[in-house]
Amino acid sequence: EAQVTQNPRYLITVTGKKLTVTCSQNMNHEYMSWYRQDPGLGLRQIYYSMNVEVTDKGDVPEGYKVSRKEKRNFPLILESPSPNQTSLYFCASTIDRNNSPLHFGNGTRLTVT
Amino acid sequence: GQQVMQIPQYQHVQEGEDFTTYCNSSTTLSNIQWYKQRPGGHPVFLIQLVKSGEVKKQKRLTFQFGEAKKNSSLHITATQTTDVGTYFCAGYNYGQNFVFGPGTRLSVLP
């Protein structure tokens, strides 16, 4: 089944403790992206990747890192999480960012205390 | 940079009533996509509009793209409880990234 898989679904952590949210897609998509969703703000792009070893900042990249060592995986790294990074995170992928639908993972709800 | 706005932010309707959400971009778009997110779920692609003035229908859902390609609308006829969720538009300019609107949350009272 074609899908984008995110883990974990829920994560509670403390300020400053490094964490990684994994994202994997099995559709051979070149384009992958991370979003955070906050009430009233919609989906804001954190980072995106056009292909392996190619990553770029989105609209809200501060406090986040990503890597794209393989086509299928695009992990999101929070080196030193802070409470303002408490949010719902979605990974998405598409075969062609110009005119193809984005396929979203099920989301990761992160709470930083 | 490009901004995408949506109105209303919330809409409560009685089952059977119609519903419309409007999407406005600060810049002319190459195309626009619409997504639906059920409560507790993830956004799911509904449709893409590309041409100026384009109208597309999916059963009770009608999507329009403005003549100037800066605005769009989603109209649902005779809402059902299965229509509950948040509807997002996402505007795209060639060579850039999709920018999502803040969404319209629809509640349908049975």
Characterise the protein shown here.
The complex is a heterodimer of chains A (113) and B (110). Chain A has strands spanning 4-7, 10-13, 19-25, 31-38, 42-51, 54-57, 65-66, 76-78, 87-94, 103-104, 108-112. Chain A is mainly beta. In chain A, strand 4 (31-38) and strand 5 form a beta hairpin. Chain A is globular, with a radius of gyration of 13 Å. Chain B is built from no helices and eleven strands. The radius of gyration of chain B is 13 Å and the shape is globular. The N and C termini of chain B lie far apart (41 Å). Chain B has strands at residues 4-7, 10-14, 19-25, 31-37, 44-49, 55-58, 61-65, 71-76, 85-92, 99-100, 104-109.
What string, H for helix and E for strand, traces the elements of chain B in order? Answer: EEEEEEEEEEE
The oligomerization state is heterodimer
* Biggest chain pair interface: A-B, 23 and 25 residues
Mean pLDDT of chain B: 95
**Which spans of chain A have pLDDT < 50 for at least 5 consecutive residues?**
none
- Which range does the strand content of chain B fall in? over 45%
Name some characteristics of this structure.
heterodimer, A: 113 residues, mainly beta, B: 110 residues, 6-stranded mixed sheet, 0% helix, 55% strand
Can I get a quick summary?
The complex is a heterodimer of chains A (113) and B (110). Chain A is built from no helices and eleven strands. Chain A is mainly β.
